[in-house]
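Suppose a colleague, Dr. K., hands you the sequence of a protein chain of 196 amino acids and asks what its three-dimensional shape might be. Before reaching for any lab equipment, you can write down a predicted structure in token form. Begin with the sequence itself:
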Amino acid sequence: MKTVLARFIFICIATACSLLGSQASFAQGTGGDSSATTRRTQVDSVMKPHLYQPNPKKAGLYSAIVPGLGQAYNHEYWKIPVIYVGLGVAGYFIADNLNNYQTYRKAYIGRINNPYPTDQYVNIYTTDQLSQLQNDYNKYLDLTVLFTGVGYMLQIIDAVTSAHLKNFDISRDISMQVSPMPVPHGAGLGMVVNFR
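The predicted structure, expressed as tokens, is then:
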């Protein structure tokens, strides 16, 4: 069981790293006059305060290595306790389901090989019921490991998307301006829609 869990975690980390490595870089240079770009940057830096913009690749990688580290890198500290509570609950259910599975499996194997069973479930469960309980807890264990892996991947995806959308404008000014515009080749008018 430990090797299956270790393989699953390795596959999740490898998938996350490959997804983060395959993303295109959005910060490409456009060429042109560098002095004009420098002047524009200096004017922009004077007019606007510097906003922290995290790198999505770093956020995803940090979150893949240590759960919650990508959220700390994004300055979203309130998400870290949520992640670790989820990991704690998942760890509890994995341990509980594994313990129950092993207990019922041991009792079931003892019943198969012994015509006079002496396990703790002698007058409580039949052999068929022990088999069913063993199968049920095996299914619960598998589902718990699966949901834990999904939660692990979701916190990585959350770190990446939060880094992308860190400075996304969500102001209430979603107005538009409609103004007439002459068409360059021919008679008529066009309409220009500007979103603010």
